[in-house]
Structure formats: C-alpha cells, structure tokens
Amino acid sequence: MNTLEALRKVYAHRRWIVASDNLVSAGRLCEVLRELGAEQVMAIGASRGTGPLTSEGVIQLSLGALPAESMMGGIRETEALIDALPAPAVTRVEAFDPDSSAGVIRAFFSSGKPVAGRPCYGARRPE
C-alpha cells in the first residue's frame, strides 16, 4: 500500500471538520480531504485569513475574530474560541454533523480538546 492509499483509508467515506486560526487555510486542508475521498467537509476559521476562499464544496464558517495584538495573543484567542464555540457556530456544526460522527482536525499546537463535542483526531488525551 502506498502513502496515498493509506491516507484514503483514514480520511475517505467520512465527514471531517477542520478548525483553525483562519478560514482560508482550513478550507485548503478541506480541499485535500475531499481529494482523499472525504464524504463532506467543514472549515471553521477563527478569522477569515488572506487569500481566496475555497470552493463551494467546502462548508465554511468564520467565527469573526479580529486581529490580535501579538502572534501569541492570536494563538491563545483562537484556541479559546475554538475550544468553546459560540452557540450559533455549534448550531451550524450540529446541522452539518447531526450524528456527531465527524472527525476533527485542529492545529498541531492546539489543546486537542473536542470541537462542539466531537473528538479531535490524533490528539493525545490529557491525563
């Protein structure tokens, strides 16, 4: 089995949510997941980011965060926002994934906490 086949075994035939600091980069990863056979994908970004947004095949949700005063401040604010999504965002996630079966991908430096009750894929459980 080559690398591409191995990745398809993990990501295909399932819904995925990518929650990141910005919608543009989350959307780009969603496009990769679609190419690997993901059933449906949702990009959640704390802010919009710069550059073009992804295709209409990706459900997009911007949380509307404003630019932070520092890089570390931005990371902390983003993580806090994704850890505890606002109620309207949770409603959108519930509509996208009513049976809570979607996998969630977050930044490598994230807390690894669930997003809207959905476990983060690959996260080490806090002990």
Offer a few descriptive terms:
127 residues; alpha/beta; 4 helices; four-stranded parallel sheet; 18% strand
Summarize the structure.
This protein is α/β, with parallel strands linked by helices and 127 residues long.
Q: Can you tell me about this structure?
A:
This protein is of the alpha/beta class. The protein has one domain. It is 35% helix and 18% strand. Strands 3-2-1-4 form a 4-stranded parallel β-sheet, sandwiched between helices. Strand 1, helix 2 and strand 2 form a beta-alpha-beta unit. The chain is globular, with a radius of gyration of 14 Å.
Annotate the secondary structure layout.
Elements: H1 3-11, E1 15-22, H2 23-35, E2 40-47, E3 59-62, H3 71-83, H4 87-96, E4 103-105
Parallel strand pairs: 1-2, 1-4, 2-3
The count of helical stretches stands at 4
Cα-atom radius of gyration: 14 Å
Number of domains: 1
* Number of E strands: 4
- Could you give a short account of the major beta sheet? 4 strands, parallel
Based on CA inertia axes, which overall geometry fits?
A: globular
- Largest beta sheet: strand ordering: 3-2-1-4
Order of helices and strands: HEHEEHHE
Portion in beta strands = 15-25%
Helix share, percent: 25-40%
Structural class: alpha/beta
